[in-house]
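re: that chain from earlier
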Amino acid sequence: MRKAGLILTAALFVSAGMAGAATIEVRMLNKGEAGAMVFEPAFVAAEVGDTIRFVSVDPGHNAASIEGMLPEGVAPFESEMSKDFELTVGAEGLYGIKCTPHYAMGMVALVQVGEAVNLEAAKAVVQKGKARARFEALFAEVK
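^ sequence. v structure.
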């Protein structure tokens, strides 16, 4: 009987922790407040266990990780074109994200999960085209 009580207590703690996880929506747009080809919002503050839901509002976009801009141990990812995509963040740090066909046009996003433990490594990644200027602004939002 005591063992069953311990298992029930453990299950309650696990489900309570999961209840606190948030889902944050990021829209993939041809045009937004920051101009053409954008993620909106482009900067997201999240906690470990949260889910970032990339919504394909306009066709022709995806969400893909940028090499060198993920926390240690996080596997690279790339969603299908014109499809919604969910990324559950499992490690603290910065997640650099691009739309593959519109990367040079500056369609990038930055997700900060907890502490920005990989800030210097993420900043050291060479960006191309408009992505460089957009990342400068996004890094200014890191806390």
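Confidence is low (pLDDT under 50) at residues 1-17.
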